[in-house]
Amino acid sequence: MIHPSLLLRRALQADALVSGAMAVLLAFGAGALSPWLSLPQPLLFETGLFLIAYAAFVGWLGTRATLIKPLVVVVIIGNALWTLGSVALLISGAVTPNALGIAFVVIQAIAVGVFAELQFMGLSRSRPAATA
After folding, report:
1. I want to staple 83 with a disulfide (CB 3.0 to 4.6 A). Which of 8, 17, 113, 115 is the partner?
2. Mind telling me which residue stretches traverse the membrane in this protein (predicted)?
3. Residue 16: which domain range?
4. Alpha-carbon torsion, ordered 17, 18, 20, 21, to 10 deg
């Protein structure tokens, strides 16, 4: 268990807030966004559904007085993998987004990568919780 640094707590909370906003945008706006971005509607919608659960989990995590360090590490690794996966999606040719779609994927990948870095820095500043 750790007592999260203020940086870690705020990075988790910001991640939850941004992920929640993206979840709503994608889950409810997939049909409208798909033609604008030239990305498949099911990909956008299912990503939105995943982000609903992710945002709820990270939001909950960001409110705890003490954190289970491995859960924080899972979030950081997950964010790093999301960033790499987003880039890999574009490179793979599995989707053919237009310029706006490419920008959308790249910008969200950068944002998620920044969250991973901030969370990593915040974790390194956190201190161990006293054990009973």
Report:
1. 113
2. 12-37, 43-63, 70-93, 99-118
3. 2-128
4. 120
Q: What are phi and psi of 125, to 5 degrees?
A: -90, -5
The phi and psi torsions of 130 (rounded to 5 degrees) equal -65, 140
Check if the beta carbon of residue 129 is closer than 8 Å to that of residue 3: yes
User: 52-63 pLDDT, tens per residue?
Assistant: 999 999 999 999
C-alpha to C-alpha distance for 83 and 78, rounded to whole angstroms: 9
Look at the block and give the residue holding tokens 């899972």: 74
**pLDDT tens sequence across 94-103:** 999 999 999 9
Calpha distance 2→128 (Å, rounded): 4
Confidence tier at 129 by pLDDT (50, 70, 90): confident
Measured in degrees and rounded to the nearest 5, phi and psi for residue 62 equal: -70, -10
Domains contained in the chain, number: 1
Residue 49 to residues 25, 42, 45, 67, 96, Cα–Cα distance (Å):
10, 10, 6, 25, 22
